[in-house]
Amino acid sequence: MSGADPASVLEPLLAEGWDEQAAVDAIQAAVAGFLERNAQQTGLPLPGRVPVPAEPNGASLLDAGDRQVQVLASLMLPRVLVLGGLLADDECDALIELARARLRRSTTVDPESGGDQVHADRTSRGTYFTRGQNALCARIDARIARLLDWPLDHGEGLQVLNYGPGAEYRPHHDYFDPAEPGSQVHLARGGQRVASVVMYLNTPKRGGATTFPDVHFEVAAVKGNAVFFSYDRAHPMTRTLHAGAPVIEGEKWIATKWLRAGRHD
Fold first, then answer.
1. pLDDT band for position 1 (50/70/90)?
2. pLDDT tens digits for 135-158?
3. Cβ proximity of 245 and 237 under 8 Å
């Protein structure tokens, strides 16, 4: 029943005398069977579970434990949330200072080996912090886990990136392409990526937006704000192709957090 809410699907079975749990199980089995048959017929991968921090037309303020985070914009396909005030100004400043002396030319994943490679599509500098490496990272990691209702150990450590004038990250997907041999190295450590959180640590004078070219949507880089997007399968149909647009004036600092399907070590 297209567009039906769960209660309206359940009610006819209950009216026929079904036990409620048995009815729920039957509906779930029918949906799972339909999705599996559809995947076999179309060749598309099955969807997986992803973080769901906010429902459509839901709360305007989200509880992140030690902060209230604003929902500034919401897009359903791709599933994108623009979040206001995820980080405090002093947290942004401190994260930049922790990262500044550690910056190196950013790399991408080599599709053949799974190792790191410098690529012309990505011209930023960056560094990584392990999960909970210091008190600030631990606080941000815990806040994101609470906000997204996603296990803390299912998150990668923070990556901090700096983009100078003209620097960019051309359109790409964050998930690991299972067809590429190099992806297996990463999939073995926590499974597939299922969501991304990009946090803006400063406000560039001009440029540096996060863009979603498939849907002509862009998120301005504003200090303390963030953009969340999820992808329930490793396939372009999620429409999560995105880019870090070139910085035109000034510089851009961001922190990125990727969420995994399983425990990431």
1. very low
2. 999 999 999 999 999 999 999 999
3. no
The first and second tokens of residue 200, run together, are 């803006």
This model's pTM is above 0.70: yes
Percentage of residues in the chain having pLDDT higher than 90: 71
Q: Are 86 and 219 in contact (CB under 8 A)?
A: no
**Strands 210-212 vs 242-244: parallel, antiparallel or unpaired:** antiparallel
Measured from the Cβ of residue 45, the count of other Cβ atoms closer than 10 Å reads 14
Both tokens of 155, joined, read 């998150």
Q: At what angle do helices 6-15 and 20-42 cross, to 10 degrees?
A: 120
pLDDT in tens, 95-114: 999 999 999 988 777 777 77
Q: Residues 6 or more apart from 5 whose CB is under 8 A from it?
A: none
Please list, residue by residue across 12-41, b when 16 or more beta carbons sit within 10 angstroms of its beta carbon and e when fewer do.
ebeeeebeeeebeeeeeeeeeeeeeeeeee
Query: Which residue, among 4, 50, 13, 20, has the nearest Cα to 233 in the 3D structure?
Result: 50
Q: Exposed e or buried b for every residue in 52-77, given b needs 16+ CB within 10 A?
A: ebbeeeeeeebebeebebebbeebee
pLDDT in tens, 240-253: 999 999 999 999 99
If DSSP codes are grouped into helix, strand and coil, which group holds residue 212? strand
Strand order in the sheet with 169-172: 169-172, 242-244, 210-212, 217-219
